[in-house]
Amino acid sequence: MADHHCCSSHSHCDESSTTDETKSSSSPTHNFSSNDIHKHFNSNDNDNINEESQTVSQLFDIAWSNQNDLQSSSADTTTDDYSSKLLHTIRLLESLEKRLISLELFSDNESIDEVSTTNIRYLLLNAYLAWLYQTKRSKPSQRLINVQHACDYYSKFLTMTRNYEIHKYSIPKAPTNDDCGNMEQLNSRDVDMMKMAQDRASKIQAHLKRREEEETMRAFEEAMKHDGSDEEAKRKFYLSKIRWWVDTALNDLVYLHDELRVLLQRKSIEPTNDDESHRRPGPLPPSRPLKPLVITRDMLQSKAIGLGYPSAPTMTIDEFYESLARRGLAPTPEQSKAMASGPKLPSASDMEKEEVAKEAHVERDDPDMISYLRSKDDYMDDHHRGEGNRHNRS
């Protein structure tokens, strides 16, 4: 396993530091006050002092909590707080990795039963680092480095867990520049629709199973916060979480290797600075002469505002209505006047006169009016208000 510690031997630089160095060399110098500089160095020194004063277990508890927050479905991955927390967790786990290597907690000559319950969870360190580098936001020029780190950490995690016989899967190898040199190999893949459908069904089943395992682990972790005295339950929980990350690593490596091939191909295609310096701009192709566009002013003007306009008016509005009246589609002027002077709706005064006349008939005991009012009352008794047409009404 000594050859798998390549990720810890070299320092992984964040894009923020690389970008700052590039900006400082290319952009004009900024005037920072002495207070800002002291604040920056004091904050970094305080973080280093706190990490050195804490134990490995305490630091891993912080990284565990940060990892759960970063992987939460409710986390907003677009904020600066999320990015800074992710970078802080990477730096914390990398320092933990160096301390664990110096402590030599893991060996190839022991089984998982010989590892203490407290130390079992440290096997997740490389899986966490791989996921963080995979999730880390970066520029296109830095994405290749992040993907390579993620592949290295996942491979290291799978190798350590296989040495402890937690799984027996074969570890896929990351593609190299030689593997990605031929573009035709990727483009000439045979597409088997039946195999794709089977893979999709198996992935759906695996996803549902993983969701159930996540819910079980989350519930178990909540129970451990209240009662952490059961050593055997802790051990089962850590082993189940390691197995879950084994499946995650195998699935993520498939997509990371595909992305790595694309990034390596793009890097091989992009010209270097030396190639661009030796290039000389060739002669520009001769431009084709433009054909003159002749516009006839009279023709366009006659179409737009002259007599040649296709929608020019041919009659006035009065003539138009007269033509409609002759065809019987509109009333004639005489008919319009007759309609205007026709019967009108009764006004309030007419209705009052009708009520006065009705009361006069009642006072005179007019038999016709009395029979009319009685029949009206009988009708109202038998037919209540709103009883009209109730067709298609529930």
TrEMBL record:
Any one annotated GO CC term: cytosol
Span list, region Disordered: 1-49, 271-290, 331-394
GO biological process, one term: regulation of signal transduction
Pfam families for the chain: TAP42
MF (Gene Ontology): protein phosphatase 2A binding
Family annotation (PANTHER family): IMMUNOGLOBULIN-BINDING PROTEIN 1 (PTHR10933:SF9)
Name of protein: Immunoglobulin-binding protein 1
Organism: Adineta steineri
